[in-house]
Amino acid sequence: MAKNSGDIILRDRMQFDFDGVGDRTTLYGRIDTSAYVDTISRQGLAIKEIYFQLRQSPSTKYPNTGLFEPTAVAGGPDVAGNFQASGLKLYATSRAYENAAEVGIASPDVLCVKTFNSHCAFNNDGIGTNVNSNQWEWYGPRDLHPEGYTLVSDLLIGVASDNWQSLSGGTLEIDILMIAEPIKVTTERMNEILSQAQDL
Fold first, then answer.
1. Are the CB atoms for 35 and 180 separated by under 8 Å?
2. Is the separation of the CB atoms in 30 and 14 below 8 Å?
3. Residue 2 lies in a domain
4. For residue range 26-35, what is the model confidence (pLDDT) as tens digits?
């Protein structure tokens, strides 16, 4: 969307390490919004857009560009010939969920969700070739909060993965860009937000 005169753009870059098999238990990075958010003076941010760019370090396929490898299992099925499935979830939230498996588009205080699925299986063609399929889904702030989302805290960026082998022992780098408008939050709305937070 076009940047309005009152909008601000916040940028951050985060890094998340992966274990030797491409797993990453739920981990959060934090975007500091303290320059714009203050519950005492009822200052908040109306979140309009959030964008993610994924990069990879080291990248065996893209050493010159650092592009994110969408195919998680490039080597095909495992040694027993079993179908392999990989998943990666990335989301922004003002609530720290203990497990990314709990996070979906109906989860409270989730601003956006991006998921990646990568599958690899043998093709039944008699010559043992592999079939790979990659799929991603994106639900942004306009999808999940068409009425707008008022942020009065720092923003958390959550990451988790299962079997994302192209990231085994490596680092996922995420660039985040957020477009927001500083707003004055009404007393009624601020009390509602704080009450919801206490109910967690």
1. no
2. no
3. no
4. 999 999 999 9
- What kind and span of H or E run contains 180? strand 171-184
Quote the CA–CA distance of 126 and 81 in Å, as a whole number. Answer: 14
How many C-beta atoms surround the C-beta of residue 33 within 10 A? 23
Q: Rounded CA gap, 49 and 4, in Å?
A: 12
Indicate whether 1 belongs to any domain: no
What's the rounded mean pLDDT across residues 10-33?
Answer: 96
Which range marks the domain in which residue 21 is found?
8-198
Q: What letter represents residue 47's amino acid?
A: I
The CA distance from 14 to 24, in Å, is 15
Residue whose C-alpha is closest to residue 180's, from 21, 57, 68, 35? 35
Distances in Å between the alpha carbon of 94 and those of 33, 37, 112? 11, 13, 11
Contact 13, 176 (CB under 8 A): yes
The answer to whether 149 and 47 are in contact (CB under 8 A) is yes
Please tell me the total count of domains within the chain.
1
Which residues are within 8 A (CB) of 33 and not within 5 positions of it... i.e. 6 or more apart? 10, 45, 151, 153, 154, 155
pLDDT tens track for 44-60: 999 999 999 999 987 87
pTM value is: 0.88
Q: At 136, list the tokens.
A: 């991603």
CA dist 46 and 182 (Å) reads: 6
Residue 44 lies inside a defined structural domain of this protein? yes
